[in-house]
Amino acid sequence: MKARVFVTLKNGVLDPQGKAIGHALNGLGFSSVGDVRQGKVIDIDLHESDAGKARAALNEMCQKLLANTVIEKYEIELKA
Amino acid sequence: MKARVFVTLKNGVLDPQGKAIGHALNGLGFSSVGDVRQGKVIDIDLHESDAGKARAALNEMCQKLLANTVIEKYEIELKA
Q1: Interface membership of B76 toward A (CB under 8 Å)
Q2: What is the domain extent for residue B73?
Q3: Which terminus of chain A is less hemmed in, N or C, by CB atoms within 10 Å?
Q4: Domains in chain B, number
Q5: Does B80 score more than 80 pLDDT?
Q6: What SS3 state is found at A13?
Q7: Residue A39's closest CA among B1, B44, B36, B53?
Q8: What is the 3-state secondary structure (H, E, C) of B48-75?
Q9: CATH number at residue B33
Q10: Do A42 and B37 count as a contact with CB atoms less than 8 A apart?
Q11: Is the pLDDT of residue A58 over 80?
């Protein structure tokens, strides 16, 4: 089973990297670009066929290692 | 319109950061974790209501700034 985990800064936490990307895009002439936020995406191959167990394990991974839950939030997406 | 852009290393390009995450997860006892790849996710607020135009603009952004197309691939996801 493949999983995709998104780790992004919580709303309200300043994101200088996202701001820099937004400014650069505006500077390149993309005037329609508003707010930009940048985060991480982690693609994981899991040797686990049960979706519930996979989700529970991924949740624990995020809590323990992948996300700093003080300032970051995470989303888990399971594929096939 | 909100858009989400994923920028990840092409298959075959070595991803030491992903490898490190995989090792760390195995070390924490998550033995079901196989291959791990890490990439970037960029959430963009676009002042554009036409999906076709938005996708074209995002494609151009990726080519010009967001992705290094020699080693990275990108996916564009449009939301509402």
Answers
A1: no
A2: 2-79
A3: C
A4: 1
A5: no
A6: coil
A7: B44
A8: CCCHHHHHHHHHHHHHHHHCCCCCEEEE
A9: 3.30.1280.10
A10: yes
A11: yes
Q: Cα separation of A1 and B27, whole Å?
A: 20
The predicted-structure confidence for A16-48, as pLDDT tens digits, reads as follows 999 999 999 999 999 999 999 999 999 999 999
Surface of A (27-66) touching B: CB under 8 A: 28, 30, 32-48, 57, 60-61, 64-66
pLDDT at A80: 73
Six-digit token string for A71 = 């300032």
Chain A CB within 8 Å of residue B72 CB: no
Beta-ladder partners of B52: none
Q: What does the pLDDT look like over B26-79, one tens digit per residue?
A: 999 999 999 999 999 999 999 999 999 999 999 999 999 999 999 999 999 998
Cβ contact B65–A28 (<8 Å): yes
Task: Find the CB nearest B61 among A30, A57, A65.
Answer: A30
Partner-chain contact B65 A37, CB within 8 Å: no
Radius of gyration of chain B (CA): 16
Query: Best residue in B13, B40, B44 to probe A by mutation, most A CBs within 10 Å?
Result: B44
Rounded CA-CA distance A74/A69 in Å is 8
